[in-house]
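Continuing the series of single-chain predictions for the mutant panel. This is the parent chain; the variants come on the following pages.
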Amino acid sequence: MLPLVSSDSLSPDSSDMELAVTLAGTSSFLSNPSSIAHAHPALHDLQYSRQAGELKDVLVFMVPSASDPAVKREVVQVLQGLEGIIRVDELVPRRRAKRDEF
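Parent structure:
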């Protein structure tokens, strides 16, 4: 399970949304992750970014300029409704807390 973190954003453009998409082992999207963007018109801006670490079934996607909360909700809902997708999590970068010095 990928950790979801607080909203203290570090990205240069805070309107970009990064999503971790967990796929079923039999999903056709595993062999061609970019094809998810063609599965529905609401996903036309979805861009495949990378695999999530060593997890072969979790892929990271970017949605550029997703500042409108309605657009974010629609993208997540459409992804959750696609066959072969198990889970969708928004990844929000945050700053690490400074440790107390004794």
